[in-house]
Design brief:
Shape: globular
Strand content: 15-25%
Order of helices and strands: EEHHEEHHHEEHEHEHHEEHEHEH
Radius of gyration: 23 Å
Number of helices: 12
Structural class: alpha/beta
């Protein structure tokens, strides 16, 4: 890898120094970031000081913090050696996962073997996606291993984004013939009948997050072509009735807004060679008062059923702006106080 770690005699006091040596100054510049902002992010998160000395980085802090920081720097440098970029999100992922986020991984055909070895990566046409928390890693593993997977938790935890990424990977790898993405078109303030346009134009605003995710993983022209060929479908939940979805990767997003009957209808669409993912947030139910959420009922009814997995996320798994996690935690505290 071109890195050696030397530990000189400790400084007086509780804080000691670990010296990391890097053989490629060009990569070292990328590791440090513009105005050393990457180093500053690691310093802030881990409570260490990182000093640059030529082709070396000196990490000053407690033994535990120095070891953690050294692992992060090794992983990020390896990522650069592999020709991959690093940004604030990748640094945060490496910190959360103890330095394993930058590891080089095998091809798609060895996906499950890769997970067994402890390395996680989802490859799509436009980018490579890596789970950034332990909960996300467990979720991605279950998306590949189980025919029906539930992802439940607050906004910003990657439930839908990772599910669509896995669906795209399975489609381009030939594991499924098509992707079907669906959401309940629950009205919130405006009735569908009064919105302008044909049915597609009426429901598209509800489906926009699914379009956004697809366009993140596939070139826009390819998305359009696959949709024209019906190899990618985006439709409201009500349009699923009467269908059998075979050899497909099917995602139901915002499932907390499906009724119990709608959820049963959706789950029984599962056909041969297909996989289903159901995502939702129990704190954002928009159903009329007194109407049971199909997501809540599915948790109770399907608990322990073979081939079905449940993964749960918390504010700690939020991978959007850090303020989002703090907002969710504040609302959770308020709900607990008023319960």
């Amino acid at each position: 890898m071109g890195i050696s770690a030397l530990t000189p005699p400790p400084h007086p006091g509780d804080l000691h120094e670990t010296l990391l040596e890097f053989s490629d100054n060009r990569l070292l510049i990328g590791l440090c970031g513009e105005f050393d902002r990457n180093l500053a992010q690691i310093e802030h998160k881990l409570g260490v000081h990182i000093l640059r000395r030529g082709n070396q980085l000196a990490v000053v802090g407690t033994a535990e913090a120095r070891g953690h920081a050294a692992g992060i720097l090794h992983a990020l440098y390896a990522r650069l050696e592999a020709g991959r970029e690093i940004d604030a999100g990748e640094i945060d992922a490496a910190i959360r996962l103890g330095g394993t986020a930058g590891a080089v991984v095998p091809s798609l055909d060895d996906q499950l073997e890769m997970f067994t070895a402890g390395h996680y990566e989802i490859r799509t046409r436009k980018k490579q996606i890596e789970p950034r928390t332990e909960a996300q890693k467990a979720y991605v593993r279950n998306l590949f291993q189980n025919e029906l997977a539930f992802g439940i938790g607050p906004a910003g935890t990657g439930k839908t984004y990772l599910a669509v990424a896995v669906g795209v990977t399975m489609l381009i790898g030939g594991h499924v013939d098509r992707i079907v993405l669906s959401r309940p078109a629950v009205e919130a303030g405006e009735r569908l009948g009064f919105l302008p346009g044909d049915m597609k134009e009426k429901v598209d605003p509800y489906m926009q997050p699914l379009y956004d995710a697809l366009n993140d993983f596939l070139p826009a022209k390819q998305v359009q072509k696959l949709m024209e060929e019906k190899r990618i479908e985006i439709a409201p939940l009500a349009f699923m009735r009467g269908r059998t979805l075979s050899n497909a990767f099917v995602v139901l997003d915002e499932a907390q807004n499906a009724t119990t009957m709608q959820m049963k209808m959706f789950l029984t669409r599962l056909g041969e060679g297909s996989r289903m993912v159901v995502t939702g947030d129990r704190t954002q139910i928009d159903l009329p008062r007194g109407t049971a959420s199909g997501l809540t009922d599915a948790e109770r009814i399907l608990d322990g059923v073979k081939g079905v997995s449940f993964n749960y996320f918390t504010a700690r798994d939020v991978v959007r702006h850090p303020l989002v996690a703090r907002i969710i935690e504040a609302y959770d505290r308020d709900d607990g106080a008023s319960a």
